[in-house]
Amino acid sequence: MPDTLREAGDAPRPDTPGGRDSAAVLEVDGLCRAFGEVKAVDDVSFTLARGGSLGIVGESGSGKTTTARIVVGLERADAGRVRVGGGSGGPQRGRAARLARAREVQMVFQDPFLSLDPRTTVEAVLRETLRLHFPGRDHPARIAELLDQVGLGAREASALPRQLSGGQRQRVAIARALAVEPRILVLDEAVAALDVSVQAQILNLLADIRKQTGIAYLFITHDLGVVRCVTDDVIVMRHGRVVEAGSTAGVLADPRHPYTRLLLDSVPRPGWDPKHIAAARRAL
Amino acid sequence: MTTATLIRRRPGLAGIRTDRSWLFRICLGFVALLVLLAIVAPWIAPHDPNAVDLGSALAGPSGAHPAGVDASGRDTLSRLLVGARTSLLGPLGVVVFSTVAGVAVGLAAGWRGGWLDSLLSRGTELVFAFPGMLLAILIVSVYGPGLTAPVLALGVAYLPYVSRLTRSLVLAERERPYVEAYRVQGHSGLQISLRHVLPNIAPVVLAQSTINFGYALIDLAGLSFLGLGVPPLTPDWGRMVFDGESAIQSGYPLSAILPCLAIVMTVVAFNVVGERWADQVARRDR
Questions:
Q1: pLDDT at B18 over 50
Q2: Which residues contact residue A175 at a Cβ distance below 8 angstroms, ignoring those fewer than 6 apart?
Q3: Distance CA A266, CA B197 (A)
Q4: What confidence score (pLDDT) does residue B243 get?
Q5: What pLDDT sits at residue A6?
Q6: Rounded to an integer, what distance in angstroms lies between the CA atom of residue B254 and that of residue B76?
Q7: Which residues constitute the domain of residue B230?
Q8: What 8-state DSSP symbol labels residue B193?
Q9: B177 touches A: beta carbon within 8 Å
Q10: Position with higher pLDDT, B95 vs A23
């Protein structure tokens, strides 16, 4: 049985303080971040349930990536709180805090070619992460297990990133994130750089992994088709603000905010008129 | 960013085109041969480099002395071979010191940024402003002859070449997404910079150091030509040019021209090899 399966299910983990809402692994409350005059993120709040999957949708510049970067700790928030698991959410320093944070949240980046060190083989990437987080465990066995989990074989283990296809590279990036055994996986446009058939494979893989491990997804994307596939809930962001939130099926079937409707109408299909969309955008 | 343009070369040598592979192969072969000869010099040298035979002073090439004899009656070929050791060992010291220290300074400045960057960058620019040769002459005149003092002085003088290059490479490298990916994984900045950033920028830095080797060789040869640095009896190319001065005046230029030729060819060879390596790295990045 893979180690990650132990994290599955709804059993509260011992490090979760009692009395709190243990169903949520991530609570974001009133997050703000400004770059100069531009408010990239403006009063954003949402909750991610344990083992749930939340999509953040919006165009480029809507603040979704900044939100994700604040959640994983790559960016600092001007105001607001990010509560990850049982953590206090405040910025902590030191090795223990850093490792604890990494074990809560992991991230898969948009471009799998850039997010892997070009000089490190697949196996070495995973071994390095395992050494950092789980010293003294049987690493070769765990590496084989992780590769198997993301659908890669022993042949790819010794490959360098440039010897792999885009889909394979993204599988490596996912395996690297899973190696830490996080409770939350932030996927920042994780399939946007892949072509459509590979996108479908990766989305299926992600759905399977969530079923097996009970990991929670925070899915940042501009693609409504992706949201429909892999998320339970969705929030729609525009100009740094949340304009609509709800269950994915509900929001997509019955969008309340004109911007959400516009996003839905912008997906090309038979009888689709780009001029009409442009006019609707100007009207908004 | 093209890595090849970051490499600093001196005006006179920057004109050598290195995109011809035969030139690179010849130069690489020459460097390899030179290193080999320097290593085995004491065993293959036909005569003791310091054996004086005044009877055949200033003799031309002959069976016993293939490259002739200098004004003091010493065999030129033997002095060239044994002198290759000193002439290569000195620049090696300069390059090792300047590379290690320069990478440390550049990495710290580029990675940490902020006040440390300002401090280190201003500091190395100060060293840049001070001519390396003058610094070396100053130190030699204080500490007396010996190879260590000028090597250290030139090492300090060459440090900014390496530290500036390293800093700019680190600045570019740390913006790459894989660095953030490692941060999210929980790796410390020190770990990321030493284990991932450093190996990724190392080829370009080593290319610069290879070019620096040639320059350090000229500088050290210049110092020993001036009679500074290498102790008098030690065979050394720069020293040989100085000793050969009187021979040129007497109309027998061979004992001065040969070490000059050795110096020039070695410097050009190191330049071509280093530049070519930098080009190859730049091409691979694209």
A1: yes
A2: A122, A126, A146, A147, A149, A150, A152
A3: 42
A4: 84
A5: 39
A6: 9
A7: 19-38+70-285
A8: I
A9: yes
A10: B95
What DSSP letter does each residue of A82-120 carry, written as one string?
EEETTS--S---SHHHHHHHHHHEEEE-S-TTTTS-TTS
In this complex, the residue of B180, B195, B196 whose CB is nearest that of residue A74 is: B180
- Which residues in B lie closer than 8 A to residue A96 (C-beta atoms)? none
Closest CA to B102 of B191, B14, B11, B202: B202
A248 touches B: beta carbon within 8 Å = no
pTM, 2 dp: 0.80
Closest Cα to residue A30, out of A88, A85, A86, A70? A70
First to last CA, chain A: 52
CA dist B285 and B102 (Å) reads: 23
pLDDT at A14: 41
> B65 lies in a domain?
no
Element holding A234 (H helix, E strand):
strand A233-238
At B245, which CATH number?
Answer: 1.10.3720.10
Q: How far apart are CA A67 and CA A53, in angstroms?
A: 16
Q: Which residues of A touch B177 (CB under 8 A)?
A: 109, 111, 114-115
Decide if B158 contacts B100 (C-beta within 8 A). no
Q: Which residues contact A257 (CB under 8 A, 6 or more apart)?
A: A236, A243, A244
Three-class SS state of A43:
strand
Tokens 């994700």 — which residue?
A68
B-proximal residues of A, 40-69, CB under 8 Å? none
Q: Which residue ranges of chain A lie beneath pLDDT 70? A: 1-22, 86-92
C-alpha A47/C-alpha B59 separation (Å) is 93
Q: How far apart are CA B283 and CA B2, in angstroms?
A: 9
Q: Are B258 and B249 contacting, i.e. CB atoms less than 8 angstroms apart?
A: no
> Residue B162 pLDDT more than 50?
yes
Contact B247, B262 (CB under 8 A): no
- Of the candidates A26, A70, A33, the one whose C-alpha atom is nearest the C-alpha of residue A51 is A26
**Which residue from B177, B187, B200 is facing A115, i.e. has the nearest CB?**
B177
How far apart, in whole angstroms, are the C-alpha atoms of residue B268 and residue B250? 30
Residue B115: the pLDDT is: 93
Domains of chain A: 21-253 (3.40.50.300), 254-284 (no CATH)
How many whole angstroms separate alpha carbon B199 and alpha carbon B193?
A: 9
Q: Summarize the confidence of residues B222-235 as an average pLDDT.
A: 82
Residue B164 domain-assigned (yes or no): yes
Cβ–Cβ pairs < 8 A, chains A and B: 55
Q: What does the pLDDT average to over B71-92?
A: 88
Specify if B236 maps to a domain: yes
Number of compact structural domains in chain B: 1
